[in-house]
Amino acid sequence: MKSPYFLYERYPALESCKDDIEKAAQALKETFKNGGTIYCCGNGGSAADCEHIVGELMKGFLKKRPLSGEEKERLAVFGEEGEFLAGRLQGAIPAVSLVNSVGLGTAFANDVAPELIFAQQIYGLGKIGDVMIAISTSGNSKNVIYAILAAKAKGVKVVGLTGEGGGRMAPLCDVAIKAPSNSTPEIQEYHLPIYHYLCQLLEKENFAE
């Protein structure tokens, strides 16, 4: 059976990391099935990728994800406003971007240590059964590495998105997807179809047409 996003047909170079992509997909599926949350962290373009991933997970991506009859009934008790909600809210895959907590991030950077802005958040929020997607094209971003260590201490699985070399973070991750390039722009170009594929797999498996 072809993948829903035809990932490997469209990007043959990604065959080199297919096993790790599929392992990451399985980890994310298990997290959603068990009621966990997906967290994302990264810097610069990778921070934008974090926001992109959360956007695809928390609302309809390629499907509308309508609420179930039972969910609509629970909202219907609120009258006209409940009907409005029931007709427009969508099923969501719980996901949080750690890059957009401006108040906490700036406070912690100023008062404690700027390289721990992601680590503090995942240490405070993460629990066993969750997954953190850690993105660093070099694999050596200090704040991402500290977040990985904090996540591991809390029993949170880590899926890494990095480049061909893997950097320091690759051996720290439960699964490290190493895009086949050492060029930052090219690595980022590979990351996008990889996480689109993962988001689509989650949606396809958990929401009806």
Can I get a quick summary?
With 209 residues, the chain is α/β, with parallel strands linked by helices.
Describe the structure.
The protein is of the alpha/beta class and 209 residues long. The protein has one domain: 3-Layer(aba) Sandwich (Rossmann fold). 51% of the residues lie in helices and 11% in strands. The chain is built from 9 helices and 5 strands; from the N terminus they run H-H-E-H-H-H-E-H-H-E-H-E-E-H. It has a 5-stranded parallel sheet, with helices on both faces. Strand 3, helix 8 and strand 4 form a beta-alpha-beta unit. The longest helix is centred in the C-terminal third of the chain and has 23 residues. It is globular and about 55 Å long. It starts with 6 loop residues before the first helix and ends with a helix. The model has no long low-confidence stretch (mean pLDDT 96).
Topology overview:
Elements: H1 7-10, H2 18-33, E1 38-41, H3 45-58, H4 69-76, H5 79-88, E2 95-97, H6 102-111, H7 117-125, E3 131-135, H8 142-153, E4 157-162, E5 175-178, H9 184-206
Parallel strand pairs: 1-2, 1-3, 3-4, 4-5
Helix pairs in contact: 2-9, 3-9, 4-5, 7-8
